[in-house]
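hi support,

uploading two proteins for the ticket. first:
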Amino acid sequence: MKDSGSSGGDAAAGGGGSHLLVRRVMQMTMVVVAFVVVWILMYNSSSPFAIPVFSRYITTRDSTMISYDPELESVLRNASMENKTVIITTLNDAWAEPNSIFDIFLKSFHLGIETERLLKHLVVITLDQKAHARCQALHPHCYQLETKGDNFTKEAFFMTQDYLKMMWRRIQFLGSVLEMGYSFVFTDTDIMWLRNPFNEFYNDGDFQIACDFYNGNSNDLNNLPNGGFNYVKSNEKTIWFYKFWLNSRKAYPKMHDQDVFNKIKMNPLIQNIKLKIRFLGTMHFGGFCQPSKEFNQVCTMHANCCVGLDNKVNDLKILLDDWSKYMALPNNTKLNVHPSWTVPQSCKTSFQRSRNRKNKGR
């Protein structure tokens, strides 16, 4: 009986243990399922916070990395500085026409102070065949970017669908350059290079960007940046940031990259990865929005706050004429004079007209 009772007791205990095990397995299964559901919801959300936070550097669905292209690797390698840094600009047919933006852009390097030697580090990313042919006729480092059926040949007017596609394709491409291990200075082609800018970059900045309007504090996120000029070091933080930036466009589908950057620059995720953002002052990196007043210190001048290709071409030619007159002065005279730009002219009128039309439409 004892054996039988003991046996029965063991069976009862075994049955209870089995039920307990089943319950625990079911509970664990429910936890795993809930975890997966939450992950999927976060992954598919259009919110800029949608990037899974389980890893700071997890690859998002919109990975910036394009398929490995040995031609691109070759172009970057041949143009690279010793520290794997390149200068990058983009070019389409409208801006590549003779006597247009591209010619003026290249001319600025020849007129600038210690800038001509930087041309060997310039990579021109062309967006169509005509621009590519024009680039190859003038410059050694040209790469034609696959645009997946989009036509970027003509002038892309500000905030049109073609313009937005072009800007986001640019962000995607630049992210892939970072993933390939190259740091870069990106420059719009309507920026005149008047002095070597590398001496004016911050040593501690991961991502450094020029401004339309600068408030005097390079660390202040309230500065109004301009995405047409930035210096970005290739590291885990910047690679993650470019993916995050690209993914964030879904939350702001009618905005271009610069406005989306303004939306996300204070995002806690960016602060958590300790991405060091620095804003470049307009004394060294000026433009038509806020011109540099110091000819003895200016590095670049941008035809920003300007609408229309012809207006940009007209005013950039005048700008280079102003600069040439300054450069013709004796060295001792340059230190004692305070010349001023005679631009914007056409750009000022066009920008005011554009702003007036925008205000009337509100």
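and the second one:
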Amino acid sequence: MTLSRAPALRFLDAIEKLFPDAIRMRYEDIQHNNDIVQSLAAFQKYGNDQVPLAPNTGRVNPQRGGGFFSGVLTALTGVAVVLLVYHWSSRESEHDLLVHKAVAKWTAEEVVLWLEQLGPWASLYRDRFLAERVNGRLLLTLTEEEFSRAPYTIENSSHRRAILLELERVKALGVKPPQNLWEYKAVNPGRSLFLLYALKSSPRLGLLYLYLFDYTDTFLPFIHTICPLQEDSSGEDTITRLLDLREPTWKQWREFLVKYSLLPYQLIAEFAWDWLEVHYWTSRFLIVNAMLLSVLELFSFWRIWSRSELKTVPQRMWSHFWKVSTQGLFVAMFWPLIPQFVCNCLFYWALYFNPIINIDLVVKEVRRLETQVL
């Protein structure tokens, strides 16, 4: 390093000796120009950050500060790997889930599992269903009148209504409808992978897709979760709200459209927050990732604004739309040929490892912003 810099230093010394007056005048001009001074200072700081070794020593340059963030990313990667291994080892096979099993073939234990997934309140009636050995065939014959009297004795009218509404859905589908992330993935593997990447790279287009092509099954529960009605905050109305899937009110649409336009990732974070009790760690990964993506989007807008590139926004939006649409069409065409193992790897990578990558991207953007300020 010293040998390569020596000829350049000798060349600069020779120029200073040959043209002392011109160099002195140029130096004074630079000192009186604040923009040039700030640019040189930023350039010097950036150069110092890029030098891995301090001059004449073998020690790491302490100004770089990469060791701390590397350690954080390594720790988070370790947590994600442990979580993924635990998830694969503890969760039952996707083919054994009730979403793939006809309700008429459910055992008494599986009926209780279906009941408990309706909410914490359903555990009040667990022992009653087990005592009567209610299997799938018997479940299909039960009516509201039978639920209200012994041996079930479900006195709470909202609880009875919630059970009956969900039972009607089971009768209509013939199987258990998806009620969590893993069941939805088991029933719709291609759509879940597409939505996960679409909501990450283009949340507005992803939500628009849900509105146009999956309104009843996905979009309605989504908007009722993130923009709930505030008419009555009692527990009974909460149960009814989650199962009725009524058309959103104008107040709900107004709240949704504001967040959709300004903070689309906040919608995903709010939805994941509502599922903390069901997906403890996964929801937290989604919330953190949504926060990081919001920060990265703000940095992108700031970069466009600071560079006076607002005129290029329509072209950027069209290019982005074309890119996302092309990728979605490409995946749809070749989906039958892609091995399921590869799809699962892509799904879990986007779910658990993308937040770790986005942390590093945010740190780089902050450093770049500091360089521009200087």
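thanks. also noticed: Confidence is low (pLDDT under 50) at residues 53-66, 232-241.
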